[in-house]
Write a structure and sequence with these properties.
The complex is a heterodimer of chains A (151) and B (84).
Chain A (H helix, E strand, L loop, with lengths): L19 E6 L5 H8 L6 E8 L3 E2 L2 E10 L1 H19 L3 E7 L1 E4 L3 E9 L2 H18 L2 E7 L2 E3 L1
Chain B lengths: L2 E8 L2 H6 L3 E7 L4 H11 L11 E4 L2 E3 L10 E5 L6
Parallel strand pairs in B: 1-5
Antiparallel strand pairs in B: 1-2, 3-4, 3-5
The chains are: A alpha+beta (151), B alpha+beta (84).
Chain lengths: 151, 84
């Protein structure tokens, strides 16, 4: 199971490579940590996306969500998304942390932070990165609701 | 003809359907990623005919179903992702 479930600490894969920072972790996420990874003195803008566990999904009341990752590949895909995002948005630096394990309603599942000199690049890069995470990064959520469990 | 030995990871909903998170496969060479999936379906029929909704990766990188599997490759069958 160790290869599929993330280790219980923030992994360093991709750290400081092309200003792209990624981690899949079972630890509680910190927005402060993620935004401090990206900000430099030339950056006038840092845009953050924070994804939380919602209490509703498709009309069902959700009580808990288990996130499961193919951690090695998830970090690799996040790194690819980060490099592409910086190239296409013109932003300078990006960090993406995704949580795995059992999360309660309201907990933070993902944090994306993008830094750039001006706001346009930070906004567009942040949008591009979270859209990429949702489309290609091998992470799955299993939602627990009153009427059962669903992937 | 030789054999190709590889490991297949069954992830997310596939893991739950199969009841295991990985399986060792021995395939007739040459074998593609699609052949490896067929071997998984033979071993775990309950995973069903889900291939149309699956992606495949070899050694942690997405690839095509037509890619040849090499000895000691780690394949991953990837159901629709739902992170974020």
């Amino acid at each position: 199971m160790t290869r599929i479930w993330a280790a219980g600490h923030v992994l360093q894969i991709g750290e400081d490579v092309n200003n792209v920072h990624v981690a899949v972790t079972a630890e509680r996420l910190s927005v402060d940590v993620v935004q401090q990874l990206v900000r430099g003195d030339g950056d006038g803008a840092v845009c953050c996306f924070i994804g939380h566990v919602r209490d509703m999904s498709l009309g069902r009341s959700v009580t808990r969500v288990d996130y499961e990752a193919y951690a090695e590949m998830a970090e690799r895909e996040m790194h690819i998304i980060g490099v592409r995002t910086l190239e296409e948005s013109g932003a300078r630096s990006i960090a993406m942390h995704h949580r795995v394990g059992a999360l309660a309603v309201g907990e933070v599942a993902v944090v994306v932070a993008v830094a750039s000199a001006h706001r346009d690049e930070a906004f567009s890069g942040c949008r591009q990165a979270i859209d990429g995470i949702k489309s290609t990064v091998p992470i799955w959520k299993r939602e627990h609701a009153a009427d059962g469990v669903r992937w | 003809m030789g054999k190709v030995g590889c490991e297949a990871l069954l992830l997310g909903p596939l893991r739950e359907l199969a009841g295991v998170d990985s399986v060792a496969l021995v395939l007739e060479a040459p074998a593609t990623a699609a052949d490896a999936w067929e071997a998984v379906v033979r071993a775990f029929p309950q995973v069903g005919s889900a291939r149309t909704s699956l992606a495949v990766a070899i050694n942690a990188a997405y690839c095509s179903w037509a890619v040849a599997v090499a000895d000691n490759d780690v394949l991953a069958f990837i159901p629709p992702v739902s992170g974020g």
